[in-house]
Every structure is written in C-alpha cells, then in structure tokens.
Amino acid sequence: MDTIVLLTFIFVGFITVFSFGLLIISFNSYRKSGNKKILFVSLVLLFFFLKTLFLSVLLFTAQIESNSLLLALELFDLLILLFLYIAVLIK
After folding, report:
1. How many angstroms separate the CA atoms of 75 and 70, rounded?
2. pTM as predicted
3. DSSP annotation string for 44-83
4. Higher pLDDT, 19 or 72
C-alpha cells in the first residue's frame, strides 16, 4: 500500500470520528440551550459527518476512482462551509 493512500485512510477516518464527536457535542448544546443557531450548526455538522462517512465507505471499498465524484464531494464541503458562515451571521 502506498504511503499517500495510507495517510488518506488515516486522515479520512480521523475526520469522520472527529466530525461525529462535534455533532454529538453540538446536539447536546442545543438540547441544553434551545438556541436555534446551535441547531443550525448541528444540522450542518450532521451533513458534514454524513459526507465524511460516505467518503470513508467509498475509500475503504475502493470505489472512488471518479474525479467528478471527488468534485461533487468538494462542492458539498463548500456548501457546508457556506451554511456555517450563515449560522455565525444569524443574530
């Protein structure tokens, strides 16, 4: 196995676990505070977790060979970042 491929597996696995942890923390924060801004951030983190979970499954089953799929996943990341930006701006 190539070193870059191994690092990719480790990085994507770490990001998946980390995003799940942030998702749990944000949902607990929303449950305690009831703040709609935190709910919005929680939903965005849910989307990000689902995206990284999908990417992990594709990487570990060796089904990711399409550049268009990678582009779609990156566009999804951009959408997530835009939603987080909007969540911060909401008063």
Report:
1. 9
2. 0.72
3. HHHHHHHHHHHHHHHHHTT----HHHHHHHHHHHHHHHHH
4. 19
